[in-house]
Design goal:
Elements: H1 11-32, E1 40-52, E2 56-67, E3 73-84, E4 87-94, E5 98-100, E6 104-115, H2 124-133, E7 135-148, E8 151-164
Antiparallel strand pairs: 1-2, 2-6, 3-4, 3-5, 3-7, 4-6, 7-8
């Protein structure tokens, strides 16, 4: 009778478990070191009206932004309402993607377009007055969605500014 020999390689399951353990530890260390600080809009330096007509308004806002994080933040969408001299004009939409670089303190330009709502005849006096005075009081209120990697967050805002043509 021949002796019984085991041909199982017991080191293979240990290697798989060791790899999984290292993967879990690496992931925990990487994600654990990520901290998030709020990106702040410190000031709106300028608001320039690019186009104002009977259909809508297009303007460029220059914002002073501080991003203390070690990764860039991308603004993906807005859900905001625009008011001209206190009267609701319509929904404001970003015309360009905005990316705030990592560890950034500086100016960022944002292009916004609002198509006037149906029945915006109440805005006609505001548009005529703005054309004559070459300025208009803008108020934008709503939420902005920003994300970095897979994590996204909504931030409320409410801003009023007297914009010049």
């Amino acid at each position: 009778m021949k002796p019984f020999r085991c041909f199982l390689n017991t080191s293979r399951p240990f290697r798989k478990n060791k790899f999984r353990l290292l993967l879990v530890l690496f992931t925990a260390a990487t994600l654990g070191s990520c901290s998030y600080s709020d990106v702040e809009v410190k000031d709106v330096r300028r608001v320039k009206i690019d186009k104002l007509d009977g259909k809508g308004i297009t303007f460029t806002a220059t914002l002073w932004i501080e991003n203390p994080n070690n990764y860039p933040i991308k603004v993906t969408s807005t859900d905001a309402d625009l008011y001209l001299s206190g009267k609701h004009a319509g929904s404001a939409k970003l015309l360009n993607r905005v990316t705030v670089p990592r560890d950034f303190r500086g100016e960022v330009e944002v292009d916004v377009r609002t198509d006037f709502d149906e029945g915006s005849l109440a805005l006609l006096p505001v548009i005529i007055s703005a054309g004559l005075k070459r300025k208009v009081n803008l108020r934008v209120e709503g939420n902005v969605k920003a994300k970095s990697f897979l994590i996204g967050r909504r931030f409320p805002f409410d801003y009023t500014h007297e914009a010049k043509f």
